[in-house]
Amino acid sequence: GRGVLEGAFLVLEELARLGEAGLTQLSSATGLPKSTTHRLLDQLVALGAVHRGEGGRYRVGARAFRLGQMWEPAPVLRTAAARPARQLAITVGESVSVAVLNASDALIVAGVLGRADEVWPLRPGAVLPVASAAEAAIKASRPRAAAPDGYPRTEWTRRLTGVRDHGVAFDYESALPPLACVAAPVHDPAGTTVAAIATVVLDSRRLASLAEAVRATADRISANLARIPGASRALRLLDESEPG
């Protein structure tokens, strides 16, 4: 079974995603028994990591929020991506996110909020679902990139080949319905893929028309990285986080 610490983080992650939730909803979202969820919540409330409001509703507490504010992921990448990401969001009028690999997960480190965030909060720290367009865009350059667990290997190979051929990855509402996404790889000065920038929309019919803007934005971020002294060294840990 899961350890106490793992269970506590599951609860905190779901609260961060949901914003506010009751005991039954949290138990269902985490897959933990209701008694276990209740015990973890009591402990987290006592520590100030979770706030319990009226009617037995819970949300992330002040202590966890303060700790989260100390997290500054990939500062070099965030600097290089800040202006291009804002420009892309203005151009397409949609949510934009920048993601890196953290172990095998695609983790958002920066972005611009938009309409899609009303469906799924695409904020820094959020982990994207497996086989997302961002994950495909990053892993396409890795010759031994295995298919995510439970994802058809032939379909994954087809998607990665598409990224290599066209420079973008698409997700037509499969990873995070009803959201659709187009992503493009970002490269460090040595040419290694270290991240992906994506725009997320509520209408998958728009994806093809957005692909060129996303690809051009990825190129601008890559060019910005090339102008930052020591960028390759600073980004090396991002590349080493996924051995495949």
Report on the structure:
The protein is of the alpha+beta class and 244 residues long. 47% of the residues lie in helices and 20% in strands. The protein is built from nine helices and seven strands; from the N terminus they run αααββααββααβββαα. The strands form two sheets. Strands 4-3-7-6-5 form a five-stranded antiparallel beta sheet. The protein is globular.
CATH fold node name of the largest domain: Beta-Lactamase
- CATH homologous superfamily of the largest domain, by name? GAF domain
What would CATH call the class of the largest domain?
Alpha Beta
Q: From the 3D coordinates, which CATH architecture of the largest domain would you assign? A: 2-Layer Sandwich
Strand and helix order:
HHHEEHHEEHHEEEHH
Low-confidence stretches: 240-244
In spatial order, strands of the major sheet run 4-3-7-6-5
Helix content: 40-55%
Instruction: Write down the Rg.
Output: 19 Å
Beta fraction? 15-25%
Shape: globular
**How many strands, which pairing sense, and closed or not: the largest β-sheet?**
5 strands, antiparallel
Compute the average pLDDT.
Answer: 88
How many separate helices?
Answer: 9
Q: How many beta-strand runs?
A: 7
Secondary structural class? alpha+beta
Q: First CA to last CA: what distance?
A: 28 Å
Could you say how many structural domains there are in total?
2
GO molecular function, one term: DNA-binding transcription factor activity
Pfam families: HTH_IclR (PF09339), IclR_C (PF01614)
Protein name: IclR family transcriptional regulator
Domain IclR-ED: 63-227
